[in-house]
Amino acid sequence: MHILHLDAGRSLRGGQHQLLHLLRALKARGHSSELLANQPVIEHARLLDVPAEPLSWRAVRALSGEFDLVHCHDARSHTLAALWSSVPFVVSRRVIFPVKKGPINRWKYARAARYLAISNAVKNELLAAGIPGEIISIVPDCTPIPSSLSTRDGAIVAIESPDPRKGGALLRSTGLDIHFSSNLAADLLHARAFVYITDTEGLGSAALLAMAHGVPVIASRVGGLPEIVLHEETGLLVENEPSAITASVVRVLNDSELAGRLASNGRRLVEQRFTIDQMADATLEAYRMVMS
After folding, report:
1. For residues 257 and 263, what is the distance between their CA atoms, to the nearest angstrom?
2. In Å, how far are 25, 26, 69, 71 from 38, measured between CA atoms?
3. Starting at the edge strand that comes first in sequence, how are the strands of the sheet with 2-6 ordered?
4. What does the alpha-carbon distance between residue 60 and residue 109 come to, in Å, rounded to a whole number?
5. Start-end of H helices in the chain
6. Is residue 77 predicted with pLDDT exceeding 90?
7. What does the alpha-carbon distance between residue 150 and residue 261 come to, in Å, rounded to a whole number?
8. pTM assigned to the model
9. In 3-state terms, what secondary structure has residue 80?
10. How many whole angstroms separate alpha carbon 228 and alpha carbon 33?
């Protein structure tokens, strides 16, 4: 297959990392891709030897007819494809926000040939917006599997994020000694625990990465997180309240048996369900449904 990918993100965040994992996996399977995006996503795609150019409506209109399929990776690229793509397009849906109502949005959402929802929670939002279930595929996010596990002798780690919905202020209010990471893959090599507090979450690729490193996860009971952080099995779910967060973190730090069990179960779950190969296979199956 020959696929044109569209991504309007202006920085490397979770969705862009998922896109890059997919581009690499599709290439390994013999499928050709090209990308319309913004910097720095263009630079990273070119490092994978994937042709990449700036995203614009003119580029979508001019290039889409040369491809079998267009894959939109965010809301703005969905709009561009709805307006300008001359071939069928699919849309990855990673957010759990309700779909906006109104005639324009109904037209836009009716144009896509298929939706790739990263979790059942996201799928349910699409269903609530009137999207037929038969054109929604569940294609969860993935994470690389590191060869070695965390030594679990370092800091309590959380994500450094300017997004007020990502719980930074709430975590700081707990008084816990937390390292706010700007390089999660590096900091997870020694992390004792990973705390992911958020107001909204489609699935939780950062939590998956921590689980892949064998780090116990404490996460908000919101959105798609309960689909991967199975309470008392692969992590602990908490309400977004300082005392609840503190109690769960202290519990993991003080109970080595619990921490070890959560860490090993989390790693096993990722290996079984959330690898890059599994994400690529599910994406290709969705493509085939559209092409057939």
Report:
1. 10
2. 21, 21, 20, 16
3. 52-54, 32-37, 2-6, 69-72, 89-93, 114-117, 136-138
4. 18
5. 14-28, 41-47, 57-63, 75-84, 103-111, 120-128, 168-173, 184-187, 205-212, 242-254, 256-273, 276-291
6. yes
7. 14
8. 0.93
9. helix
10. 30
Residue with tokens 């324009």: 104
Q: What is the pLDDT of residues 231-272, one digit of tens each?
A: 999 999 999 999 999 999 999 999 999 999 999 999 999 999
- The per-residue b/e assignment along 34-67, b for 16 or more CB within 10 angstroms, e otherwise, is bbbbeeebbebbeeeebebeebeeebbeebbeeb
Amino acid at 6: L
Chain centroid offset of residue 130 CA: 23
Helix (H, G, I), strand (E, B) or coil at 220: strand
Nearest to 48 by CA among 32, 69, 68, 67: 32
Amino acid making up residue 262: L
Which domains are delineated in the chain?
2-142+276-291 (3.40.50.2000), 156-273 (3.40.50.2000)
